[in-house]
Amino acid sequence: MKLRSQISLLLTTLIVLSISATAAVLIYQNKQEISNDIYLNARNFSELTASRMATLVGEYLPSESFVLFNPQMKDLLRKNSDVLGVEVYDYSGKLLYNSTTEKEEQYKGPSRENITDPVYQERIQAQNPSLKTILGEVYYLEKADTGQYHFVSKEGIPFLTQPNPQNFQIANIVYPVSNTYAVAYNVSYLNLWTRLQQAAINIGMVALAAILFSILIGLLFAGTIARPLRKLTKIVEDIAQGNLDQRAQIKSKDEVGILAKAVNQMATDLKKGIEARVYQEKTQKEIELATKIQQALLPKDIPDFEQIDVSAELVPAAGVSGDVYDLIRIDNEKGNYLYCYLGDVTGHGISAGLLSTTANAMIAMLAPEEPDPVKLLAKVNVTLKAKTSGAIFITLALVKYDFQKKKLSYVNAGHEQILKYNTADKTVDLTAPGGIALGMLPEIHDQLEEVELDLKKGDAIMLYSDGLPEAWQNEKDTYGMERLTETFSKYGELKTADAIQKATFKDVNDFRGKFEQKDDMTLIIIKKD
Length: 529
Description:
Number of domains: 3
Mean pLDDT: 87
Helix content: 40-55%
Low-confidence stretches: none
Radius of gyration: 31 Å
Number of helices: 10
CATH class of the largest domain: Alpha Beta
């Protein structure tokens, strides 16, 4: 065999082996990173959208308002291409909605039967979300206070050795919502195989170019051909070490140029995969920043007021809170009074946090110029309705204390009923429900009413979000309104509002024990001096 042919064969073999080995390592690493990204994206997508999807099903499907329901559901599903479709079940396991079979029309056939798979039924009725791998393994997920997820058993016991999401592929994620619904997300790995297929094509191109190049090397001067090959080999080595910005600056139209183009394309594909992972981490940091900003908007210190004593506390479940409260003291030509309110946005996450922050800013802006609490909330409602979709809204209880008249009144906009402690006989009254949540209708002035409470010395009132009575002790038992009323009756005689607030929270937390906090908990106590 001629020397030029030997050189061509040797270089071809070395190039093919080097590129194949490097590509195999990179593709394996890329496959693991993409698999992990698909798992993280699907998990975070289910966390952010499950409550919203359950709300849409509960709001529109019973009234057969599919024309309003379907566009919103499709808009949610378009935000994650790795989710093929979703299924929504009620707590008993009955299928309420299937996005695959109900793309354009709501199901109107015979009543659907409950699922018969006991493992699937357990996942629907669990407190924690769960995932099933394509091999049939089921893992439950528990979110720690730090925001990190851990794999646990269905009883909530963490595994000693945590499974690595890079080593398996998931078939679906089931995300329970408030022990009422469960949303099942069917996950696709089509993007993974598409990108790996493209990488395989690039490798084929690299191998083919290497073979063609080896034939030409016997016809051309070996040194002239070896120089660009050495540069290209260095680029491949740098890419293998993680320097994905490296590109081969070879513009020739021959096989060496084809090889360089294929290597550059391979580096570009790998960089896109890493950037997707960085974007996911950036999103998580933005959620954490939003949580800090929201907490900064809450009152840092509650001042001492003449005639009344006030204490408030908000304990978020996790991340961005849907609860909001504030105390606004007004002393101008409009009067000398205090506005104190507690609001609770439907759902959780960033959308709920944005609405609560918007309501907080609007009330703070309008309160100094509007002494009428009914008009104040009506004005806030007009803006919220105009700026939101109507599928998300906020319930709110607003208390006004007039320091000149020494009178306390309240307006309830669809919120939990206020509790009133009577110091004379140590009883607790439950005020009448009323009003409508802000952001639901364009005009609600006539549906709101200012109600005066006769608050004597030593009496107190309690404003609270539904996270307190709905605090879970286990998968079946909640704290409940009866227990909350008894607690207020027991501690209402304490001397300060802060003492009552802390005693109430302690009683709720003692009841809950180590069970996961499912919802934000906010409590305001106002005690008459």
